[in-house]
Amino acid sequence: MDMIASSASGLSSLPPKTGIGLKPQHYDAILDPDHPSGRPFWVEVHPQNYFGVSDSIGAGPPHRWLSAISAILPVSFHSVGLSLGSAEGLNNGDLERLAALCERYNPAMVSDHLSFSGNAHDRFADLLPVPYTKESLNHFALQVDRVQRRLGRQMLIENPSCYLAYRDSQMSETEFLAELIHRTGCGLLLDINNIVVTTGNLGGAAEEYLSAIDPDWVGEIHLAGHATEQHDSGPLYIDDHGSAVSERVWQLYAHFIQRAGPKPTLIEWDTDVPDYATLMAEVAKADAVLMEASHAFA
Average pLDDT, whole number, for the chain? Predict the structure, then answer.
């Protein structure tokens, strides 16, 4: 099947600095110009959290908080519900609600995942991997193109965290991503923690994975913590976003940034959310890596 490359283009972009996932317990701190921990350079939200009926026309506290914060900081929309890899196609209702939110807030970036999270009958509370086949690639590219045409902008696709591999996959994950980006003009949300989780569970070297990534693809980077369970068969790495970024992830991140130059970077901490000062200490560590790279690329 011949694919038509999207003509969408990014309307704006995130600064090559560090952001955080926006959490209600940190609203007041972010809005305080004199907070001793300072502010992140941008924030990321899951747009599905703003799809509630009471909030659809702008009512309700979630929109009031987001409006106040988006007035002072760039916002990235990180979608978790389009289910681009579903055999029946993406969730069109989610796409229309996402388009309405984009029109209202004009986010600096929009992203979703290289995954599926449902079928014709059910939606799952998880992001499940797709097989890396030519058929799957054709289908996924069509869905990405639908989103970009509807939103009138480029989107990013995040590499997944995987716990299994499909026997009939015909290409590697990086080969799949490279062809998807070539066909659609989308970008990559590079999650370095997910690379550690995937290679830890399925084998392979994280360094080799990163070496296959063209820095020009990358519009945003995610850094997060993961859990490790010990089993008779060996360790199982779980992408739970529930702890500080691991030293392994920091090492890979610094190595990539040295090659790629500064990129917008998110500290992703979604469970067991820490206090604001702890989170901003992680931001400072990422900012130090970005600052060193900015001098090298000046």
Answer: 89
As a CATH number, domain 18-296 is 3.20.20.150
Residue 118's pLDDT is: 63
The residue-averaged pLDDT of 184-191 equals 97
Q: Where are the domains of the chain?
A: 18-296
The one-letter code for the residue type at 36 is P
Q: Is 60 exceeded by the pLDDT of residue 3? A: no
Q: Map residue 255 onto helix, strand or coil.
A: helix
What is the C-alpha end-to-end distance of the chain, expressed in Å?
A: 44
Whether residue 287 has pLDDT greater than 90: yes
Q: What residues pair up with 189 in beta bridges, in sequence order?
A: 158, 220
Tokens of residue 217, six digits = 């693809």
pLDDT at residue number 120: 46
Task: Print burial letters for 64-81: b (CB count within 10 Å at least 16), e (below 16).
Answer: ebbeebbeebbbbbbbbb
Residue 187: name the closest of 197, 178, 196 by CA: 178
Question: What does the alpha-carbon distance between residue 284 and residue 68 come to, in Å, rounded to a whole number?
Answer: 24
Radius of gyration of the chain from its Cα atoms, rounded to whole angstroms: 19
Q: Region of 238 please: left (phi>0), alpha (psi -120 to 50) or beta.
A: beta
Q: Residue 136 pLDDT more than 70?
A: yes
| The two structure tokens encoding residue 47 | 């747009």
Asked if 195 and 252 touch (Cβ cutoff 8 Å), the reply is yes
